[in-house]
UniProtKB/TrEMBL annotation:
GO biological process: methylation
Gene Ontology terms for molecular function: thymidylate synthase (FAD) activity
Protein name stated in the entry: FAD-dependent thymidylate synthase
Gene3D superfamilies documented for this protein: 3.30.1360.170
Gene field: thyX
Naturally occurring in which organism (per UniProt): Fusibacter ferrireducens
InterPro entries according to UniProt: Thymidylate_synthase_ThyX, Thymidylate_synthase_ThyX_sf
Domain of life: Bacteria
Pfam families per the UniProt record, alphabetical: Thy1
Keyword ATP-binding in annotation: no
Length: 229
């Protein structure tokens, strides 16, 4: 299952463990009252657990994703993982490394009509889209910068420089597309979604968060709805 995001990116659901029922049964294990089907009273229990911050049962179900996104999205994503309030020790993040692989190098290039203005009253974030003339010039400059850097990278590879050093020539670091696996509990998924589906989140990472959210709701409809603020 894969959802395309931006121009070249995607979110792919690799695997899941558990279901809404897993949350219920892990919460009721102390009373030895496991059930084989989800009842109305179980749905109420899930909502009660989320509302009262009884979050450990939500860590008995997990989701695993493969993500392909601009580096600026990946680093912001990681920030919200390590900043998670529950510090889930079982969250895993494994990213492709250009020390070892020389797969096709791709970059996130905003459309000419997608360059955003600096907001008037904020130190970060963005405002409305800029005019097409500025957008065309911005895209042109970005493409020129990438072309020049890639020529240097190709030169380094052709002249026998180690891949781990040649990658220093790869331009536009924040727009470089990177790929990683992310495995986390339902609580970890919800923490990320609560932070990155907010209207104040950067547009690019919000687009990825919406893709994650659609997968999470499909697989864990009751639990995710209960955990989202």
């Amino acid at each position: 299952m894969m959802k395309k995001v931006l121009d070249k990116g995607y979110v792919r659901l690799v695997d899941t463990m558990g279901s809404d029922l897993s949350v219920v049964n892990s919460a009721r294990v102390s009373f030895n009252k496991a059930t084989e089907s989800l009842r109305d009273e179980d749905k109420k229990l899930i909502k009660y657990l989320a509302k009262n911050d009884h979050t450990s049962p939500f860590r008995h179900a997990t989701m695993q994703f493969e993500i392909y996104a601009p580096l600026m999205v990946a680093r912001q994503w990681w920030k919200y993982i390590i900043g998670s309030s529950h510090q889930d020790p079982f969250t895993a993040w494994n990213e492709s490394s250009r020390r070892y692989v020389t797969e096709a190098i791709e970059f996130y290039i905003p459309e000419e009509n997608a360059w955003r203005s600096k907001p008037e009253n904020m130190k970060q974030g963005s405002g409305d889209n800029l005019g097409i003339e500025i957008g065309k010039e911005a895209t042109k400059k970005l493409l020129c910068q990438i072309e020049a850097g890639m020529k240097n990278y190709d030169w380094a590879i052709e002249n026998g420089i180690a891949t781990e050093q040649a990658r220093l020539f790869i331009p536009s670091a924040y727009g470089l597309m990177v790929r990683w696996y992310w495995t986390t509990s339902l609580q970890g998924v919800a923490h990320f979604l609560n932070q990155r589906t907010d209207d104040h989140a950067q547009f690019e990472i919000r687009a990825y968060a919406e893709a994650v959210k659609s997968f999470a709701i499909d697989k864990f409809p009751i639990a995710i709805e209960a955990l989202l603020i």
